Amino acid sequence: MTATQEPQVREAQGRGEEGQGTGPRTINLIQGVTEALAEELARDERVVLFGEDVGARGGVFMATAGLQERFGKHRVFDTPLSEASIVGAAVGMAVRGLRPVAEIQFADYMGPGFDQIISQAAKMRYRSGGQFTAPLVIRTPSGGGVKGGHHHSQSPEAYYAHTPGLKVVMPSTPYDAKGLLKAAIRGEDPVIFFEPKRLYRAARGEVPGHDFTVKIGEAAVRREGRDLSLIGYGGVMTDLEKAADALAAEGVSVEVIDLRSLVPWDRDKVLASVEKTGRAVLVSEAPRTANFMGEVAYVIQEQAFDSLLAPVVQVAGFDTPYPYVQDKVYLPGPNRIAAACVRALNY
User: Model-level pTM?
Assistant: First the structure.
C-alpha cells in the first residue's frame, strides 16, 4: 500500500490475534511485544516495521521473529546500519500517512538519530501549525542487567522525557507491553517505547485473548500500602516488589506504584499515594544526576509538602559509565531499595 492510498483498517474488538478467539494466556514480555506488532499489522495496513535485522532474522532479541514471513517484505523489512536514516524515514512515512514502527537495536544507539527525533518528530505538529503530525513509534531495548556494558545497557529516557512533543513509555509486564504498544501505534503522537531487556523473558503474566489497549499516562498500583510509597518503572519493578516483600516481613506496609509511562506521567495517582503514606522512595536505574525521578520528586514536594513525614528519597544508578561486570552493584537492587525505605521510615 502506498502512503496516499485510503488505509484499510480491520478492527479486532473482542477477538484474539487475526480474529481467532482465545482465552487469557500467560506469556512473557517480549511475546507481548510480538503479539502487539502482529495484531496491529493485521488490523491496519498503514503499519510498517523496520530496523536493523528485524526482517528475516527477527531482531537481535527476536521480537519481530516470523513477522516478515507472515506480512511480507514490504511491511516488515531490514534497514542499513544508520539510526539517523531509520528515524528520518519513519518521520517521512508518518507525515505521509503511514504508521511506522522503527526499531533501534539498543537504546544506546539512538544518538545518531537524536536530531531527527527531537528536531523533526517531536516538533512536526507545532512547526506546521497542526497541518502535519508524526504518529510513529520508536521501539528500543533499554537498561541493564544483562552484562552488556556501556554500549548496550544504558537508560537514556531522561533525554527524551525532556523534549516536548514526545511521549515516553516503559512497561514492566507482558500485559502493559502489549497494551501500551498497541496504544502507541494507534495514537497521533511520536512515542519512544523503551523495553527493559532484562525483563524480556523474566517477566511473565496473563494477558487477555481479546483486543485491548492500555492508556498511556496512567500509572498502575501494583500493591496497596499505608506506610510508604515505593515508585518506579521498567526494569526495576521486580526489585521493588522484592524490597516490598522484605519490608512486609518486618510489618511495613508498602504501596508499590509502576509509572508505566514517563511522558505523560500520572501525577494524580502518585500524589494520592504520597498524601496517604507520607513517605516516598523513587527508583530507577538511570544515572542519578538529572534522573527523570528528580522531576517526580519536585512535583511531590511542591504539591504534597504538607503530607510528607520524611524527605523524598531517590535510588538510582551511579554517575559513571555502565560497567561491564559490576551491573549488580550499579543497579538499585532490592537491598539498596529496602535500605532507602528504612531511612525514610526512620526519619
Answer: 0.93
Determine which one of 150, 152, 162, 210 is catalytic.
152
CA-wise closest residue to 148 among 288, 321, 315, 13? 321
Question: Where in the sequence of the chain do the CATH 3.40.50.920 domains occur?
Answer: 220-346
What is the spatial distance between Cα 101 and Cα 65, in angstroms, rounded to a whole number?
A: 15
Q: Which of 314, 142, 319, 162 is nearest to 235 (CA)?
A: 142
CA of 149: how far to CAs of 110, 125, 269, 326, 329, in Å? 16, 37, 35, 9, 13
For helices 267-277 and 293-303, give the axis angle rounded to 10 degrees. Answer: 60
Q: Distance between CA atoms of 315 and 129, rounded to whole angstroms?
A: 41
Class of domain 17-207: alpha beta
pLDDT tens, position by position, 65-110: 999 999 999 999 999 999 999 999 999 999 999 999 999 999 999 9
What are the backbone angles phi and psi of residue 316, rounded to the nearest 5°?
A: -150, 180
- Known catalytic residue: 210? no
Sheet containing strand 280-287, edge to edge, reads 220-223, 254-258, 228-232, 280-287, 313-317
Per-residue DSSP letters for 308-346?
A: -SS--EEEEE-SSPPPSS-HHHHS--HHHHHHHHHHHHH
pLDDT at 21: 55
- Cα torsion 27, 31, 32, 37 to 10°: value is -150
Q: What's the residue count for the chain?
A: 347
pLDDT, tens digit (0-9, with 9 covering 90-100), for 9-39 = 343 333 334 444 578 999 999 999 999 999 9
Domain with CATH 3.40.50.970 in the chain: 17-207
**Separation of alpha carbons 229 and 337, rounded Å:** 12
